[in-house]
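Next comes one such specimen:
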Amino acid sequence: MKFMMFVCTDTEPETDESLVPDIEAWVAENDAAGRRVEGSVLGSPAAATTVRVRGGDLLVSDGPFAETKEVIVGFDILECADLDEAIEVARKHPMAYHGRLELRPFVDLAG
């Protein structure tokens, strides 16, 4: 089962740095196990471009779609047996301590 894991900032991060796992170890472990299909850090919200079409007109604006204190800073695509495994993978990610992680299953559009 594939999951998109959005990596987001949070206004209330963990303050005890000794609890936070190492990101390179997390990536290496999950790459080796075949659970991390792909992942990347994203550019800042200031670098975002929003695209919309309204009434047939193309509307392009600089910046993110929504103003918010929390922002998506990266993503990982996970291949896990089920949601429980995806949660276990996410709970060991450093941003589970510094920020927040949002898991969403991919939808099978073929049927």
